[in-house]
Design goal:
Length: 88
């Protein structure tokens, strides 16, 4: 959290710190895609939604689009979504 570019040096009060952390944790768990869990959100994996075919199809679609834009980035090999973890 402290390595985020918008993280303040100091908080004005305990309430400011709590508000900042609450917003950060909401983003981190529901929006941020984690490389360690196949670029899914923590929320989707925890609630069993990551296995839904629509999520994996959407991820593959994004990878396909990235490959079409710049195949050299992937050494000419079409990328595949990472396997989901066994436990979180």
């Amino acid at each position: 959290m402290k390595y985020r570019p918008d993280f303040p040096q100091r908080f004005g009060s305990l309430e400011d710190a709590r508000a900042r952390c609450q917003a950060f944790f909401t983003w981190y768990n529901t929006i941020h895609r984690h490389s360690g869990i196949a670029y899914m959100t923590s929320h989707s994996v925890y609630h069993g939604q990551a296995d839904a075919i629509a999520v994996l199809v959407a991820r593959q679609s994004a990878l396909d689009a990235a490959f079409r834009r710049n195949p050299n980035r992937f050494k000419g090999k079409i990328p595949r979504p990472l396997a989901l973890p066994e436990a979180v």
